[in-house]
Design a protein that fits this description.
104 residues, 3 helices, five-stranded antiparallel sheet, flat
């Protein structure tokens, strides 16, 4: 149930972004694709971003969120071939800890 809610949340966020900013979201997705290993190395070297969250979109794709202590973050989709596309990035990322006994 938690994974389903997470996937729905991510899907809703992506849809809202595409609707509210169709030009910028489309241009980012077209211009920011490469092999996953190259993007991960770039995010680490340039922004100190590390893998923070991951979720399966379907059997062939996952969504990954990389975040840094500085608050910068990047969301990308990776397919089974190892190709990744950056779909969103931003500032002021905060990880919220799960409280004991709560069901997320």
């Amino acid at each position: 149930m938690g994974r389903t809610m997470f996937c729905r949340l991510i899907g809703t966020a992506l849809l809202a972004t595409a609707i509210l900013h169709p030009g910028s979201a489309a241009s980012q997705a077209m211009l920011a694709c490469a092999q996953r290993v190259d993007i991960v190395a770039f995010l680490d070297a340039e922004y100190s971003e590390k893998l923070s969250a991951i979720g399966q979109l379907d059997p062939k794709r996952i969504v990954e969120i990389f975040a840094a202590e500085s608050g910068s973050w990047t969301m990308m989709i990776t397919d089974v071939s190892g190709r990744s596309c950056v779909i969103l990035s931003g500032q002021n990322w905060e990880s919220i800890p799960v409280l004991p006994g709560s069901k997320a």
